Amino acid sequence: MRTALILLFLLAVASIPGSLIPQERVDPSAVFLWKQEHPKLTPAFERLGMFSVFSSVWFSAIYLLLMLSLLGCIIPRLRVYARAVRQRPPKAPRQLSRLAAYDTWPTDEPPEVVADRARELLSSQRRRIETFGPPTTPADGAGSAEIVVSAEKGYLREAGNLLFHVAVVVVLVGVAVTGLFGFKGSAAVITGQGFSNTLVQYDDFTPGTRFDESELAPFSFTVEDFDVRWERDGAGRGTPLTFSADLAVSDEPGATPYDYDLRVNHPLEVGGASVYLVGHGYAPRVTVRDGAGNVASSGSTVFLPQDGSFVSFGVIKAPYASPTQLGFEGYFFPTAALCDGQPCSTFPDADNPVLSLIAYRGDLGLDQGRPQSVYVLDKSRMQRFETPGGNPRALLLSPGETIQLGDGAGSITFDGYDRWVQLQINRAPGKVVPLVGVLAAIVGLLGSLFVRPRRTWVRIRRADGRTVVEVAALDRVSGGDPAVHVAEVGAALRPAAPPAPRQHTPPEESP
Amino acid sequence: MTETLAGLSNNAVYAATVVYALAMLAHVAEWAMARALPADVATAGSRSALVSAGRTTASLDADSSAADSSAADSSARPGGVGTAAAGQGASPAEVERSDKFGRIGLSLTVLGLLLHAVGVVTRGVAAGRVPWGSMYEFSITSTLAVALAYVFLVRRYKIRWLGLLVTGFLVIVLGLAVIVLYRPVAPLVPALHSYWLAIHVSAAAIAGGALTVGALASALYLVRSSMEAKALAQPEKPRTGFLWRAPAAVDIDRLSYRVHAFAFPLWTFAVLAGAIWAEYAWGRYWGWDPKEVWAFITWVVYAAYLHARATAGWQGRAAAYVALFGYATFIFNFVGINLFGSGLHAYSGM
Ligand code: HEM
Question: 3-state SS of A162-173?
């Protein structure tokens, strides 16, 4: 128990760094920035697994130990409990008057009458009852003969407690297993384009260790439209109001497609996987012509939003341009304006779209055989187009506008923009297991917290020619008030005639 | 219409803050008047502090507490605080004066609660949704839960002795909400368009209200139990003042336990509902986002609190410290992570 307590605390402390230091799995770009800012700490932190705390050796060690201590505790307790539920209520302690909740009174009723009434009362309160004492009353004056009615309730507390702890194990195991057989992937899809569930269509794909690629269900869909609306005025100006993507989904090749309105909080379930709408952005449509006037590149390109104003960064590559390859890098401003002399966007919707690019020519480096990110322009073998003054030449384009690059290199036309959606596609078989586990844990917890095991004794004996009744109760856990219970039992067992004063004080004040 | 309601909400929240402040002043007066009053016979007498402290502890140990062992503890009985205090009596007029301010404080708190409820409800109607979409709204809603919990518990368990702490808490948090956190009514971001917002956040707010009352009780318990320990060492010192008139440490402790026992399953449920919602909204039920990490830490610390209560040697003061630590993690999650943190839960409106 003390071990479990210490391990619980350790687990709490161990998860703190995970919330203060950026985590690889939560926000990889924040990790990247953090590493740049803290070059000295980075190596040590990497060795300690600080960027993936929750899968680090030490974190896993703590929770494995916790699980072991949990199992090591549940199993023997199950055995003890199996015995305890079959047990009868125990004998009374010798000195009932020493219990915190105690009441006594003399009466002239015969002991068995009181005992019967006590049995009836206590069993009507759904307590388990056991009577100790002579089956028949001995002759008056036998003195030592006594009847004890012993009652107990609250066996479900321990059951609830055990259920809770077993459920914690179920949750831990369930979480671990769910990841093994599933996968997690993401893809950015431009409106009007499609996605089919094959590896090459994912931008990012993380299989569980037991996942096999052949298990990818053959579904596909087209993102026909994406609707996004922002608050235009008032305090919340610029906050998004709705996102919704119209999908046409096919369960398998050749199947008739059906429509699905994909929204946040409204994922698509298809082929055992779930598709979530997790983000969106702009994809400027650009046509690049080369020196010969041929179209070297055309279509929309995904630009990544940089902040809530949706200023978006992107790269356009035209490898087929001649005489030299062309590359562009820059920003898309949905509602372009000047803020403090700098170009900025004053609203996330595309009220005044402007594309601001720097152009390069030379070798894009695509033939090196190295994989290249579509969001990065390798400028090492490229040359910037500059103004006569030697500064980079910013190409500012409104929709429909064309700018000549000069030097016979070609031109660029900003045709307009599309939107794209960021989709997350997961498959997590068995995810109901942790859910059921937590629900069971809550049920167990309620039992474990609100069922109060309590033992009650009513001892009836003859003394000095009268019958003396004693009532006492003992709670086996804190939080209850046995004195109140004893007072109630006392009130119910006293002979009805003159109502006795309610009395549940400790004995020192009622000698 | 929306504007009018939003204005009404703001005025009601201001008014509630002011009325709570008056209630707090009344409770300050209640304490001040009780400075010279001796320990209350009702609380220090029959079920006195140290007397029952020794005994209840014995009845707490889960299994070993056979009745005989509790008998051994009763050695602490004679000459306990109770018997000593029971001899002295306060003049009824003085007691009545202090008590009157206590009753005024409670009445004002109830009035404040009504205004507060109007403020929260009209805010929700003005926004056309549940009133917990920003940090300001969550503050006014969860403090409403605190006030409700307190008024309910006063009726049920006579906890008016917590009045000063509760009203003080309400004034500080509502004041900060109005001054620092205030945001006009705004629509929800799409991530919050879900009935899970109602389920998850209301469970968290109610659990938070109960945890607050539990933490205040734990703090008062620590003060009272050290007073009792000192009194035992110096039995001749007079025991006067409001805190001596509050219930005995054991009783405060029991209340604190009950409130925590209510809050913990609810908190578990709030975390679970959050996980299910995250599954719908973000495609994963648990992602170790900072907010999630701290909800987990809070959960673990309170689980440890419940364990501590069941472990011999960790009851009483140690358990109370664990409870306060748990509350600190809860508050940090709300304040620290919302203001400075990042992650997917960044909808605080800051
Ligand atoms: C992450 C959550 C929890 C873990 C890992 C955990 C672990 C454990 C372990 C390992 C034990 C047995 C240790 C022993 O007997 O030596 C134990 C016992 C116990 N736990 Fe938990 N526990 C957790 C949550 C809770 C909660 C929330 C409660 C509150 C109701 C609770 C109540 C108890 C009780 C009453 C015992 C038995 C005390 C006894 O038999 O002496 N546990 N727990």
Answer: HHHHHHHHHHHH
The answer to whether A423 touches A196, Cβ cutoff 8 Å, is no
pLDDT at A318 over 60: yes
Q: Which residues contact B132 (CB under 8 A, 6 or more apart)?
A: B138, B141, B197, B201, B202, B205
The answer to whether B38 and B88 have CB atoms below 8 angstroms apart is yes
In this prediction the ipTM stands at 0.77
Residues of B with Cβ-Cβ distance to A474 under 8 angstroms: 59, 65, 67, 70
Distance in angstroms (rounded) separating the CA atoms of residues A361 and B260: 68
Q: Which helix (H) or strand (E) holds B132?
A: none
Q: How confident is the model at residue B86 (pLDDT cuts 50, 70, 90)?
A: very low
- B48 to chain A, closest Cα gap in Å: 10
> How far apart are the C-alpha atoms of A271 and A255, rounded to whole Å?
13
Q: How far A120 CA sits from the closest chain B CA (Å)? A: 24
Question: Hey, what are A497's tokens?
Answer: 């005639």
Q: How far apart are CA A452 and CA A123, in angstroms?
A: 16
At B146 the pLDDT is 92
Q: pLDDT, tens digit, for every residue of A120-131?
A: 999 998 889 988
Let me know: does B243 contact B35? Beta carbons within 8 Å: no
Report A:51-80 residues touching B (Cβ under 8 A). Answer: 53-54
Is B286 part of the contact surface with chain A (CB cutoff 8 Å)?
yes
β-bridge partners, B104: none
What is the domain count for chain B?
A: 1
Are A448 and A330 a contacting pair, CB within 8 Å?
no
CA dist B43 and B246 (Å) reads 7
Question: What range defines the domain where residue B245 resides?
Answer: 2-83+91-348
Q: Is B345 on the interface with A (CB under 8 A)?
A: no
A168 lines ligand 1 (CB under 6 A): yes
- Measuring from atom 31 of ligand 1, which residue has the nearest CA? B307
User: CB contact, 8 Å: B309 with chain A?
Assistant: yes
Quick one: pLDDT at residue B295?
92
Residue B228 to residue A350: CA distance in whole angstroms: 69
> Token pair of A438, please?
């937590």
Region B280-284: mean pLDDT is: 78
DSSP A382-422: EEE-B-TTSSB-EEEE-TT-EEE-STT-EEEEEEEEEEEEE
Decide if B65 touches A, using CB distance below 8 A: yes
The protein residue with its alpha carbon nearest to ligand 1, atom 27, reads B303
| CA pair distance A85, B59, nearest whole angstrom | 21
- CA A165/CA B266 separation, integer angstroms: 17
Domain annotation for chain A: domains and CATH numbers = 1-87 (no CATH), 89-154+453-493 (3.30.310), 281-421 (no CATH)
Q: Please indicate whether residue A66, judged by its CB atom, sits closer than 6 Å to ligand 1.
A: yes
